[in-house]
Amino acid sequence: MSDVTATRHPGLNLNHTDRETHDRAESVMFGFWVFMMSDLVLFAVLFATYAAQSVHGIAGGPAPAEIFELKSTLWQTLVLLTSSFTMGLAALALKYRDDRRRLVLWLLVTAALGGTFLYLEGADWLRMARDHGAVPQVSGFLSIFYALTGTHFLHVSAAMVWIGVMLVQIGRFGLKPEVKLRVMRLAILWHLLDVVWIGIFTFVFLFGVVQ
Amino acid sequence: MTKGIPVSEDEGLRAELRSYAIGGILSLALTGAAFWLVASRALSLRTTLLVLGGLAIVQIAAQLRFFLHIDLRKSHRDDLQLILFTALIIGLMIGGTIWILFNQHARM
After folding, report:
1. Is the ipTM of this complex over 0.95?
2. Which of residues 156 through 195 in chain A touch B, CB cutoff 8 A?
3. What is the distance in angstroms between the Cα of A129 and the nearest Cα belonging to chain B?
4. Rounded alpha-carbon distances, angstroms, from residue A185 to A10, A117, A128, B80
5. CB–CB of A65/A209 below 8 Å?
6. I need a labelling partner for A114 at 20 to 30 A (CA). Which of A88, A89, A179, B3 fits?
7. Cα–Cα distance between B16 and A187 in angstroms, integer?
8. CA-to-CA separations, A93 to A33, B13, B101, in angstroms, rounded
9. Strands (DSSP E) found in chain B
10. Mutate: best of A42, A58, A85, partner B, most B CBs <10 A
11. CATH architecture, domain A28-210
12. Closest-CA residue in chain B for A198?
């Protein structure tokens, strides 16, 4: 019953335009989900350490409420959320239209938004370091703050490199099955990075400002 | 045909576009509510923290549902179980860490 197995894996599937690749997708997609979940556990450890250090690890240095700026965090959040949405549009272009130009266009928009996010976050760090002397070695709170947001920053940077590699592969090889499956996994990573950011803007920035 | 498993889960481009749009608008609204709550200081500290946590969990669920297509369909159950188990592990680690470290701090 290929009809039954063909629909097993969730989400960004290719059933509509490419049944054969869709059949092959299930195990690699599920495997990638398992990998991503272990990555979330890494973030969980950083969040747990942050929760303790942001209260007890100030060590005479600046407190969260003194260095965070809501406006900057809001812009970062809006840009990353929009990029998650445009990555969804890229996935839909792949799934329903098999449309290379549209896919490339939405990937480029997503990469531009991702770059904007990285720029905004980098500028926010520089502002904290310049105006408040808030560098990682000042206190336990600042060490884990930069470790947590920095890990997320590195993830987004790596995903940006992945987008670049995909653009090259789409250009060179066209929409081959392997390339499609890579784009689908890229989309999962990108969406999950926005999910992690929900945790960061809520439990780091908003919690920090309100206290 | 095996019972209970749909032949095809193709909702069609329009339906899926709508799903992404709903997810996007919902996320925007929840984000807006969270930032407004902090900027306006409308509630007491304790209530604010609780509501913020709730808004974050709802937004995470919304993005899993509308962007990552995780729902209650039988065919998605493996992934849902994987995610729920991971959520359990994350809850244990974060909850346990906070519990132990705050307890230690109180004793020092």
Report:
1. no
2. 188, 191-192, 194-195
3. 23
4. 12, 21, 35, 17
5. yes
6. A179
7. 15
8. 22, 9, 48
9. none
10. A85
11. Up-down Bundle (1.20)
12. B56
